[in-house]
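Input chain follows. Return structure tokens only.
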Amino acid sequence: MSVSALETPSRPGSSAPGAVAWGYYWRILRTSLLWVVAGTVVGLLGAGALIFAQGKTWTATTIVQLTVLTSDSFSMDRAPSSFLDPGTEVQLARSSVTASRAIEQLGGVLTVVEMRSATTASLDQDGTILRISYTSHDLNEARSGADAVATSFLEIRSEQAQQRRNDVLETIDNRLSDLVEAHADALERQAEASPGSAAAASAESDREVARLEMDRLVTERTALSNVPAEAGTLLTPAADSAAVISPSRLRILVAGAMAGAFCGVVVAFLRDRLTKKLAVAAHVSEASGAAVWTPDLSASAGHEWDTAGELFVAVVPDEIRSVALISAVSEAAVDPLLESLVESMTSAGRQVVTQNASGVEELAPSRQTTDSPPPLTIRTVVPPTRRSDQLATARQADLVLIAVDLSSTRRDELTSLASHLRAVGRPPTAVLAFDSGRRGRAHRSSKLMAQ
């Protein structure tokens, strides 16, 4: 792990809200990619289980062209579909009567409720094409069901039309019989009346009215007789139509993967928010608002903080006389860091005086010249130390550094310390992030490899 200096902390609410927010989100996704992948895998497994549990269903469709059953002559300005009532046709196709007859054709295995629930029908808008669909777990059953419902629908529609026509014809015939009797009676009265008399004129008028009415009824009866007996034509049987498989396995898998990935993202953000310790260097940046320096774990023992020492030299100009190192780790743990800082500064030609928690001062030798800057004093504050003492030491210094341990320091502790340092006018310049847990694991791994 190399040293990193994060000049702009990636945390919400800082000076560049847009860029910082996106950086924060990207950091969460990048560092918690395993959770997103795990969520995606779980979502795919759940989708696969759902597909296995539900099984697949087939939906077959039979296409029927309806015949307009009317004695009215078609107008060039009126489409045949205008004589149809879509709601009535669809309800008839899904009615219990149609379902019962279709069940008889299929051998009487299903109930009317099951037949109706598996059947759907739709009439094309401004058209005479009716689509009857049937859904089943078996392809052949779906096709047989769609054809049976379509055939039953056409039979019932034809029977109903024929019955209506017969009723109208019967009414016309009865009326014609009455008119024939009225016409005969008028002829008889006309023959008995004196020519030119009022009775003769009345009889002639009644005879003419009866004749005209009979002519009209005969014309209407002829028109009804010419109405086609077929209620429609089965254009495309279900066997010749493409059956639809549902549910769509691809859609379920995609939906499962997306839902799983979303849950993984939510878990990643919740986990990051609920993590109390400084698990990663980004947490340090968000909590402190300062640059973060981390040790180089690939370096040999005693040189992990050498790069941090060079950065220390770069950020401490000659005008700085004193530096406060407020540490959340023990004095023994911070000593290697302090040695690297002192060594880098003395190598740059500046004398360094270190003052530990007990007040003991040590002078580090350096290559002094006549134009060397004044000595630099580094005061180290290690736990257990009261917050007031930490702030007092910071106020007396020109520059403040903080040392934390990613494995033990709490995020709220670092946030509180950085906030107090800003309140006294000494915001932290950098935070040096130890990782005792990771360093221990790396040390154990190197020993095992050596063996």
